[in-house]
Amino acid sequence: MKKKSTKKSTSDGVRYSSESSDLSPTGGIRILIAFFFPLLVGGGLWGGASCFAQTLAGGQAHSIALCSGCVWTWGNNFYGQLGNNSATDRYAPVQAMISCDVKSVSAGDDHSIALKTDETVWTWGLNDRGQLGDGTTANKKIPVQVSGLTGVLAIAGGWNHSIAVKTDGSVWPWGWNTNGQLGDGTTTQSLTPVQVSGLAGITAVGAGGGFSVALKNDGTVWTWGYNGDGNLGDGTATQHLTPVQVLAGASGCATYLCDIIAIDVMDRSVFAVRNDGTVWAWGWNGNGQLGDGTTITKLTPVQVSGLAGITAVSAGSGFSVALKNDSTVWAWGGNIYGQLGDGTTTQQLTPVQVVGTGGVGFLTGITDIGTGMYHAYAGKSDGTLWAWGASALGNNTATASSTPVQPIGLCPAIPTAVEPFFREAGIFELISIYPNPSTEGSIQYTVASEEGGEVSVKVYDIIGRKVLSNTETLEGGVVTKKLSTAGLSSGSYLLQVTNNNLEKTQKQFVIR
Predict the structure, then answer these.
(1) What pLDDT was estimated at residue 30?
(2) Could you tell me if residue 458 is inside a domain?
């Protein structure tokens, strides 16, 4: 999702289904929050799935939203990056020509990436450097499968390379490699995935301008590739063809940066969220995007000023956005297009709060964030999506906005009464979790199950450790149950519900 600063069986044979979420580290952790009700947006060949909730990704001038397994895109389409078999720009969302079984999305500069529920990866758009990973350099207007890549957990797109993490913790990039961003010890371009040398236990990756970043399951961060702006965080400006570990900097960790739970990358700057809710950044700082009150480039991590309780960070070109555990959004850095969403176009060297619609109050109830080159997005708990900054906002105009606007015809708000429907035997859906965030020591979760039976509930923390589990036998239909969260500390969690081998996951915030 990183940019450069220069810039679901049916008669058609496609199986449509409604899927929920997974980790989508396009940099940071991306969660799809899925609810089950009839599609309110026009369907067409690729329609027919429910549409509520978002995993968000942005490229140089295009945007991607994942709604209940279906991929929607808008913005620049010169290279086919919208995936609708066209090269025509779109100012309102269109559905990409990929079956509705996608669980996470990412965007490179001018290409798009989707991870399916079968753990395969699909790409489309610009392919001049082999960033689509199909063994060619031909641009694609519809999704193609990345060659030889299966068992994938997470994806990320950079300027002209892409990366995938496999379920075994290994890292597989492809595309341009002039700066060693593929991490295989060479500078040789690869049109298909190659394995990064010496990395294991990786849970998330980020792809920037000629370099790559990985988060390990022990909370450490590793980088490789271009380092002219100190973006590798090793205290030097020396390029590395294989991974090096990010130093502690000002973090207070012993030697190397520690306790990291999420990462994101933009251009030649990197951001990391610690398990205490603080944000740390390093690399290029020309627009104040590191948020330390200066515009001085940093070779090792510094703390973003005045931020606490942060659960996710997303970075654009020269600006950054963070999601707080009270569901508010904060931004800092360059602001020429209003990409900070504070109602102005004034640069900010430290975080400011994103305002509400029309500049009234502040944006609240946010569960997910994303950024493009000069634009940002926020998904609300009611299922609506909001965007601000330069064009690619999906509101049928090419006009920039310094306050949040709503894309047209995408992910309508949740109805007051949810009426589940079943297209095939065995359908199961996690409809809602309430309250979210939780401050009351318990939550209520509502599920829709055609068959009923044993329902297993598991809660995982942000680095994948199971912290709660419960099993109940429920009747078929729509059922609401209560789950105690009294033993959980403040933070971001994943609640996973399983019934008859069907699995749904939703993000949950706990505030103490």
Answers:
(1) 28
(2) yes
